[in-house]
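Appendix C: a fully annotated inverse folding record. The material below is reproduced so that readers can follow the format used throughout the book. The structure is listed first as tokens, followed by the designed sequence.
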């Protein structure tokens, strides 16, 4: 006489890691952080036409409530300490999406005042290229991030500090 006979087909077994990963996968809260023209496309993704809410994403205005930061647009060296501070204020686990060519690689702004990729400041999980990328691209990037979170394959390493 085991527990299976008592409960019948009404039992599900899973590891705690799988359950926690499933919960994290479907409850991502991104910080509202737009820097340039890509932020308009990020805002359009949250509108009723694309409906971010169906993926479990609710934009938060406080980094202490967010677990994802979508860096959309170019990052100037003057703004880089604030990006790093917001990232540091986010609770663990936290994820980063670089949205747009400027956030990914500096874009067409190959000048002394623009950081040539936000990965020089904070570790990036998903890169979304385009100038500016369409809302569908951001949704695809979120789905890929959800797949990584579900697998538990995200490893963090500290990027080199370019702010010194």
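Designed amino acids, in order:
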């Amino acid at each position: 006489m085991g527990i299976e006979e008592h409960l019948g087909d009404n039992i599900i077994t899973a590891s705690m890691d799988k359950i926690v990963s499933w919960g994290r996968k479907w409850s991502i809260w991104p910080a509202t952080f737009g820097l340039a023209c890509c932020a308009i496309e990020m805002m359009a993704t949250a509108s009723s036409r694309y409906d971010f809410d169906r993926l479990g994403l609710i934009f938060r205005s406080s980094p202490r409530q967010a677990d994802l930061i979508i860096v959309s647009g170019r990052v100037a060296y003057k703004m880089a300490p604030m990006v790093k501070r917001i990232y540091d204020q986010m609770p663990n686990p936290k994820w980063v999406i670089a949205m747009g060519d400027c956030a990914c690689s500096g874009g067409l702004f190959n000048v002394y005042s623009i950081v040539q990729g936000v990965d020089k400041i904070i570790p990036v999980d998903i890169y979304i290229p385009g100038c500016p990328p369409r809302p569908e691209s951001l949704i695809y990037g979120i789905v890929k991030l959800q797949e990584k979170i579900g697998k538990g394959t995200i490893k963090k390493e500290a990027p080199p500090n370019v702010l010194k």
